[in-house]
Specification:
Radius of gyration: 34 Å
Number of domains: 2
Strand order of the largest sheet: 5-6-7-8-9
Shape: globular
Structural class: alpha/beta
GO molecular function: cysteine-type peptidase activity
Protein name: Ulp1 protease family, C-terminal catalytic domain-containing protein
Region (Disordered): 146-168
Family: Belongs to the peptidase C48 family.
GO biological process, one term: proteolysis
CATH architecture of the largest domain: 3-Layer(aba) Sandwich
Number of strands: 9
Helix content: 55-70%
Length: 413
């Protein structure tokens, strides 16, 4: 591969420059130019867009010097002996091999940093130029160390990932006894299904999201990780993927039925952060998604807390179900509310009395319970004229276990 640089309508290759480098390597002034060309051209190659200032300055310097040197060659001011021509061929081959195989600064140092070049550096150059070139070459010399460091970091990351997998695998295996004793059969069956699936139980499970489920522009993907399953089975805060997959399961259960009146919003696209930092993308998504159904379920993550929006555009009303004690009853507290109204128009916002969680980890379980009951029952019970929630009691363990069992039971690959 030849490195070509265009200047003033001419194309100059390194094969044209090498003869002069060999022939005039003992000439101090010319050698200064040659060293600058080598450094400039290679810095352009190594750093390219990483440091635009270096790239721009070096490229301009290199182009100007190449033009001068090439004109000297073309004017035949330098003639080569047979011995010198062989030397040029050798250097050309070494240059070609170094660029094709290693493509790093060691090739330049190995080829050009011979005794003559070292001598030319010792004298005949201004101190500032020597310092400048030394710094540049020192920077080039750092590249192998940086590559070695990057490879070391990759190896450490791989080791860390394997250690995390081993830890998650152990956590999953240690759950078996407790699940057999304290969980319903539906949870045990779901646990065994996860543990016996193809591959490693600690590996993530990729989920493809059909664009029709959440009315997205295109299909998307997410993963259920081993840590997600551990959190689901041990009463911890739930990740967004758990709620997303549960919505997908409800869609496959009822979504295509002629009796179904419920649409689903993708919780990953409507979080509080998405509403703030990706407002226009969120509005675009809501415009597509809030169409075609009577009711829409939207698990909404604000900070670390899930609430459930039930949006009823045809009835001009929306409900916010929040399991936190002392939660706000002002829709302006929730960023999603304003974006929804931007799409469907003004709504009356209701905050019904719902189950209140005693601790800080249950909100995701409560939201799944409410969605499950609404899709399977309440959507066809004269809602929203009849509001089915009126009790603040916390959910019992058997109710939480039932929703975990439903999560596993409804999930279809």
């Amino acid at each position: 591969m030849k490195t070509r640089i265009k200047h003033s309508g001419m194309t100059d290759s390194w094969s044209e420059i090498l003869p002069l480098m060999v022939k005039l390597s003992s000439n101090k002034s010319i050698m200064s130019i040659l060293r600058r060309i080598v450094v400039a051209a290679y810095v352009c190659y190594i750093w390219n867009e990483r440091n635009k200032k270096i790239f721009t300055n070096m490229r301009r310097n290199c182009q100007e010097l190449l033009s001068i040197i090439t004109n000297i060659i073309r004017m035949k001011l330098v003639s080569l002996t047979v011995k010198e021509s062989k030397q040029v061929d050798r250097v050309s081959r070494e240059w070609q091999m170094s660029m094709n195989k290693t493509r790093n600064e060691e090739a330049i140092i190995e080829i050009w940093d011979d005794k003559t070049l070292k001598e030319s550096n010792k004298k005949g150059k201004a101190p500032e130029e020597i310092t400048k070139n030394k710094k540049t070459l020192d920077r080039i010399a750092e590249v192998p160390k940086l590559k070695e460091r990057a490879e070391k970091e990759k190896a450490e990351n791989r080791k860390k990932a394997e250690e995390e997998k081993a830890e998650n695998r152990k956590k999953l295996m240690d759950l078996e006894h407790d699940i057999q004793l304290n969980k319903p059969k539906s949870v045990l069956d779901g646990y065994n299904r996860w543990m016996s699936r193809g591959g490693d139980c600690a590996d993530p499970y990729a989920i493809r999201v059909d664009k029709d489920i959440f009315r997205q522009f295109d299909e998307s993907y997410f993963a259920i990780n081993a840590t997600d399953i551990v959190e689901l089975l041990t009463n911890q805060e739930l990740e967004c993927g758990i709620l997303t997959l549960f919505e997908m399961s409800l869609y496959h259960l009822k979504g295509r039925s002629s009796l179904n009146r419920v649409g689903f919003l993708n919780p990953g696209l409507i979080t509080s952060d998405a509403c703030l930092f990706e407002k226009w993308d969120t509005l675009d998504y809501l415009t597509r998604a809030l169409e075609g159904y009577d009711f829409y379920l939207a698990p909404y993550l604000q900070g670390r807390h899930y609430v459930l929006f039930i949006i009823c555009p045809k009835h001009g009303v929306a409900f916010i179900l929040n399991s936190s004690r002392g939660s706000s009853k002002n829709e302006e507290t929730y960023r999603l509310a304003g974006l929804v109204e931007s799409v469907v128009g003004g709504l009356r916002w209701e905050f019904p009395v719902v189950n209140r969680q005693p601790f800080d980890w249950e909100c995701g379980f409560y939201v799944m319970k409410w969605m499950h009951d609404f899709v399977l029952k309440y959507q066809n019970d004269n809602f929203p004229n009849t509001v089915p929630w009126s009790d603040e009691r916390p959910l019992e363990n058997k109710e939480l276990n039932a929703i975990i069992g439903a999560w596993f039971t409804l999930w279809r690959d």
